[in-house]
Amino acid sequence: MIDHRGYPIGFRDMPPMRALATGKIVESTLLGLYHHRRKQLTWVSATSVPQFRPGADRPHQVISLFSDVTELKRDSALFLRAQALARVGGWEWDGGRHRLYLTDEALRIIGRRDDPPRTLAGVLAQVAPSDRPQVEDAIESVIRDGGAFDLEIQVVRPDGESHWARLIGQAEGRAPMNARLTGTLQDITQRRQIEEALRSQARTDPLTGLFNRDGILSELERRLGSDHPGTTVVYIDLDRFKLVNDLLGHSAGDHLLVNAARRLERCVGESGVLARFGGDEFLVLADTEHDPGEAEALAERITRAFGDSFRYAGEEFTITTSVGLARHPEHGKSVQQLVNNADAAMYDAKRRGRNNWQVFTPELARQQHDRVQVEAQLRRALDNEEFRLVYQPLVALADGKVRSAEALIRWRSPVLGEMRPDHFISHAETTGDIVRIGAWVIEAACKQMAAWRAEGFALERVAVNISYRQFLTEDLPQIISDALNEYGLPGSALELEFTERVLIEDAPDTLHTFETLRGLGVVLTIDDFGEGYSALNYLRRLPIHGLKLSHSFLQGVPGNESDVAICQAVAGIARSLGLDVVAEGVESPAQRDFLLGLGIRTGQGFLFSQALEPDNFTAFLRQTGLHTPQ
Ligand code: G
Ligand code: G
Ligand code: MN
User: Fold this and answer.
1) How many angstroms does the Cα of residue 510 sit away from the middle of ligand 2?
2) Ligand at shortest distance from the CA of 394
């Protein structure tokens, strides 16, 4: 005969003998009976009740009840095994007797199999300090009000190892004296580790191994929520990265991104957290609590680090960075604001020629706000008929008589007021609205030209400015021939002014487009000639008619020697290439005479007239007269 743990029981410890000796009932005691011959263990539960003769104070016999619990015992063994496999332990706390009972598995989870705690306090001491208050509150509350709790907590084993556990408990009674709690304790460390791995995967950029956008944004969120001030958002964009991708292929692009990430990592070091924000953009959260200048120093380190070229498949190429900084809290209090403002500063760095860094300023915020406003208003301006054209006369410098007109767009916005083209054309180019607006300009100028001709004013032609973006669309020649046809004008009645960009960018179809346009009979000129870095080579190749000498070179004429030299050079180039020259921004008779001396015969400028509304232009024509070509 053995006890519930499998140890042999002595004769005197058997339940009937104990009942006889003590005179007390011995209840439900588990005994194992081993049948030697059958080699079979049977588990029984024995209850022994002592019998007393009337008046006697010692029992004279014992009645024992046995029930076979072999099946039950097996079930409970399986149950315990199942619990152990699921890493679920059980516990019970008897509030009346202040006794705590933990199953083997529960003891294993808290690392106390050799030294089971007897009190609630003994176990609570092992709960991580940050979790302890919520466990205490939960226990108190179920003792007081009944119900149950379900918590995920960290348990620290005596050897210092930390485990995650799910602690479930419920009350069986109320009132302090008979409060009895039972529950389970489950080791969920593995699950938490898997969750953590998934979480960190979702926050990692697979190419570079850095934080990704989500990861860095939640890190920034966390920092703004903490009491530590002094984070600066550093927004980094690789300049002309797209070119590498397009020219050398995507794997070269990936290679470059990984190398750029390593370079940035070395720059950042311990001074912040680095992330790949998307595409060729990176973000650093720089710690600037103790050293406010650290972000600027970092931006400088980054700019310099990209001074060295990259190598790929035997090729060497240089990639620079444009960097923008926004400091918390001066430059933004929310995650969105800080990132937007660092982005705006980065954009400003790009605008200033790339390969540099800029700190956010309120002025940038204003510009950004304006940009958003202008872009929103621009979208409706055409349909609302908010645009109109004004015309600046181009005159024969010798006699001041009108030869032609340049159409210049004006915008009266009901929200923003009267807007000059310098304030909205670049935005329209960014959004692409310039294509529709430009088509309207061509149409409106042709319409006005036809009206003047119908009135008997034989203007040579009207000039319109064509944005580079319009030039890139395939249907520019179509739009132009449609407008000419609609108003019954010959091609020679229209002049198109292109910026030097058409020369510089050398798009594949440039020559073809120019030839198609020239085939329509329209006059083609390069506007503001000399302001950019003109590619003289293309000037020779493209079938253009003339150049407009930028007014910026006329300012210093005739006093400033270098301005004089440039005007002479442009006039010389034009003459030898057989191109016409028009001088812009003629403001004084001295400038006019200087130009005439260079052999330039046509000009426009305040000396003659500013840009005029159509009616005023007609009046000006009547007053000065038309130049009649020889
Ligand atoms: O007229 P004003 O000086 O504000 O013009 C400023 C600039 O805007 C000039 O360089 C001129 O070429 C440009 N511009 C004026 N009208 C148009 C237009 O209809 N289309 C384009 N693309 N640019 C224009
Ligand atoms: O870039 P574009 O050539 O299209 O610019 C023409 C603009 O130059 C006109 O919109 C007009 O406002 C400006 N302009 C015209 N005449 C003069 C002038 O005599 N002096 C100056 N400074 N600007 C002029
Ligand atoms: Mn122009």
Assistant:
1) 27
2) 2
Domains observed in the chain:
11-68 (no CATH), 85-193 (3.30.450.20), 206-360 (3.30.70.270), 381-623 (3.20.20.450)
pLDDT tens-digit series, residues 493-540: 999 999 888 877 767 788 899 999 999 999 999 998 877 666 677 777
- Contact 549 CB / ligand 2 (< 6 Å): no
Radius of gyration of the chain (CA): 45
| CA neighbor of 549 nearest in space, from 599, 504, 509, 505 | 599
Separation of CA 430 and ligand 3 centre (Å): 20
pLDDT at 268: 95
Nearest ligand to residue 497 Cα: 3
pTM metric for this prediction: 0.58
Average pLDDT rounded to a whole number, residues 468-489:
94
Helix (H) / strand (E) containing 71: helix 70-85
- Cβ-contact 458, 626 below 8 angstroms: yes
Q: Is the CB of 395 under 6 A from ligand 2?
A: no
Which residues lie closer than 8 Å to 465 by C-beta, 6 or more apart?
A: 406, 407, 408, 409, 441, 497, 527
Would the CB of 465 count as within 6 Å of ligand 1? yes
- For the Cβ of 465 lying below 6 angstroms from any atom of ligand 2, the answer is yes
Cα(585) to ligand 2 centroid in Å equals 6
- CB 592 near ligand 2, within 6 Å: no
Residue 327: pLDDT band by 50, 70, 90 thresholds?
very high
* Residue 480 contacts residue 449 (beta carbons within 8 Å): no
